[in-house]
């Protein structure tokens, strides 16, 4: 497998072409950002922790029948993935009210949400990722009604698997952000699932176990990422 030209560089990952058609190389960098890039740092091994966790979770989801772009790890920070035509939507699944939900709406942080709440944002930094409703998604022709239903079904299926998994680790999956892409007519989970894209709380102490530690200066974020990565990849053993 030969690494080719840079295809895309995001806030914390770089995506490269390879010499195999339809296969991309994703490199998890050590960059960490918050507040639309207003706060940023480079933290040693951060990319490795996120790559390791993403790979573990993608494998877990695949075992549970959820299609993902993940193929295999190349080393501790690079993975091979299927090339997808990414859908410019961020799909957020919320099990507990927290973060912007509690700041924006009259619902106290920590309130359980049953059934889970799905929020979909338009992925566009220049517009600060505005929230969309179903009608806007259809009007913008981002998805058909059938595709939108499929995306929501997949998001809830991911949530069901991950809630059970994290409960087994003594962790509450508060919420998470995922992205989807198309391989032909098939919709698959893409991007990553890591401490950068999930909100995790210790089930017993309420301690933040995710990027909120960095976002709000709650402690040593890399120590938290290390502990969480080890716990996840041990599967609770």
Give the gist of this structure:
With 237 residues, the protein is α+β, with helices and mostly antiparallel strands.
> Mind summarizing the main beta sheet?
7 strands, antiparallel
Number of DSSP helical runs: 6
For this structure, what is the CATH class of the largest domain? Alpha Beta
Low-confidence stretches: none
Number of domains: 2
Spatial gap, N to C terminus: 34 Å
Order of helices and strands: EEEEEHEEEEHEEHHEEEHH
Mind explaining what this structure looks like?
It is a single chain. The protein is α+β, with helices and mostly antiparallel strands. The protein folds into 2 domains: 3-82, Phosphorylase Kinase, domain 1 (2-Layer Sandwich), CATH 3.30.200.20; 85-220, 2-Layer Sandwich (D-amino Acid Aminotransferase, Chain A, domain 1), CATH 3.30.470. It is 30% helix and 35% strand. The protein has 6 helices and 14 strands. The chain has helices at 46-63, 100-104, 134-139, 145-168, 212-215, 221-233; strands at residues 3-9, 13-18, 23-28, 31-34, 39-42, 70-73, 78-82, 85-86, 89-96, 112-122, 131-132, 171-183, 186-190, 198-202. The strands form 3 sheets. Strands 8, 9, 10, 11, 12, 13 and 14 form a 7-stranded antiparallel beta sheet that branches. Strand 6 (70-73) and strand 7 form a beta hairpin. Helix 1 (46-63) packs parallel to helix 6 (221-233). The longest helix is centred in the middle third of the chain and has 24 residues, at 145-168. It is globular and about 50 Å long. The model has no long low-confidence stretch (mean pLDDT 96).
């Amino acid at each position: 497998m030969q690494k080719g030209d840079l295809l895309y560089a995001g806030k914390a990952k770089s995506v490269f072409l390879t010499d195999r058609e339809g296969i991309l190389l994703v490199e998890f960098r050590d960059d960490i950002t918050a507040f639309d890039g207003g706060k940023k740092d480079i933290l040693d091994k951060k990319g490795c922790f996120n790559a390791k966790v993403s790979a573990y979770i993608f494998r877990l989801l695949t075992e549970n029948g959820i299609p993902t772009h993940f193929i295999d790890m190349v080393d501790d920070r690079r993975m091979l993935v299927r090339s997808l035509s990414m859908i410019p939507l961020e799909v957020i699944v919320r099990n507990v009210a927290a973060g912007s939900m509690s700041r924006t709406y009259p619902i106290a942080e920590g309130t359980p949400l049953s059934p889970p709440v799905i929020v979909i944002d338009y992925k566009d930094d220049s517009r600060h990722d505005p929230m969309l409703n179903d009608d806007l998604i259809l009007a913008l022709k981002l998805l058909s009604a059938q595709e939108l239903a499929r995306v929501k079904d997949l998001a809830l299926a991911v949530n069901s698997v991950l809630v059970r998994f994290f409960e087994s680790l003594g962790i509450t999956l508060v919420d998470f952000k995922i992205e989807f892409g198309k391989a032909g007519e098939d919709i698959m989970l893409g991007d990553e699932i890591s401490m950068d894209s999930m909100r995790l709380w210790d089930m017993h102490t309420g301690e933040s176990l995710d990027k909120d530690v960095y976002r709000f200066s709650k402690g040593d974020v890399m120590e938290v990422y290390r502990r969480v990565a080890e716990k996840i990849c041990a599967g609770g053993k």
